[in-house]
Specification:
By secondary structure, this protein is an alpha+beta fold. The protein folds into three domains: 198 residues, no CATH class; 115 residues, Glutathione synthase, substrate-binding domain superfamily, eukaryotic (Rossmann fold); 60 residues, Dna Ligase, domain 1 (2-Layer Sandwich). The strands form six sheets. Strands 4, 5, 18, 19, 20 and 21 form a six-stranded antiparallel beta sheet that branches. A hairpin with a 2-residue loop joins β19 and β20.
Amino acid sequence: MYNDDYSLELYKIVRENEDLYYEDFVDFIAKTKLSKAIYHGEPIPMTYQGLFYNRKNKSDFIYIANILMSITDKITDEFLKNPKYRKLFQLDPFIEELVLHDPGYDVPVPICRYDVFYDGINYMLCELNTDGSSAMNEDNTLGELLLNTKAMQKFMEHHDVTNVDMFTPWVYESVDMYKKYVSNEKPNVAIVDNLSVGTTNEFLEFKRVYEENGYNCEIVDIRDLEYRDGKLYHNDYRIDLVYRRIVTLELLKIKDEIKDFLDAYMDNAFFMVGSFRSQLMHSKLIFEIFRDEKTLSLLNSEEKKFVEEHVPFTKKIEDRDAYEIIMNKDKYIFKPIDGYASLGIFVGREMTEDELKEKLPEFIEIGYVFQEYYDMNRCEFLEFEEKSPVLNKFTQVVGLFIYNKHFIAPYTRIGKDNVVSGARKYYTAPNLFINE
């Protein structure tokens, strides 16, 4: 398996001098706690290893990214021109109006993190994150620290290893889109979110990289924007390019407070990446829509095969599904349709029949899907138990960061629970590309 051979090699290095490397591990963890890798105010948990992947694995990731981008284009195009097809998405009318508005470019999802279960051979889609896709900072910050550990320094005597930068490529891609669709002049950039919930450490890193590349950049709360004289402003700062980080669900909550932003968007007074069309792929309903006959009729044979083999069965929960769900609860996982950050997820095999019966009315009222639970082959990662190195099996969710349809790098979380997420005990495994 990918990763495991390299994990074993790293493990053998650490076994050569367990005390030395354990002390180094303790020092490494201390540095992570002082770093900018923060999630919900807490340091990101780490083992003594990242996710190792090589050229073959990268080729797989590129293939998955390319075919998903092709399917994304076809679904979005059909949504825009076919009112009957739109009904599959069950969008709030306000959001549908934003999605239908032409943003001035033809890339439906300029930035995303499409998560897959991947073991080096087999893979299954897990979740599609579009607007507000995050975690670049935790990967790159922790990855650089990890490469400077004593074990990785020893490992790199025999391997060419890189922690792929996820910030600079986005600066290049977003500005290239602006130049292609708007103007060759340098844009004033704004990173826009509801800053009471946004990932500000990550925003600061993006701001730094924009500025290092010669672009003005401000981090702005979406509620503080003004639309005047045909332009969008934050105080006296005219905004040409918006990097949108606010997720659509959060935007919907405060829509009455952001009239200036919305009016300016509908007037195309600024260029925004990504547009609201990315919401089509963000909704958990998209997995059900992938498998709908109306969608399959849009796809070529290779894309249909991909959907059949790599998109788990998914369906919105309705009253008529209760018997199937309860009788086969261990087969399913339950997710909120408009959820993000892995909040509100339930696993059938972790619930009693009575608990599930009690939850079903709530699932129906809020809007949930039930999805086929995927048991994947677990990979080995190095950690310490009682100061001794061990290789333990973990489930890994590999997030494929894709910028302007180009695969950049994976972001990986690993865990031993039935769900791998920030809402449960997990570790981040920074991307470690082995160029061989």
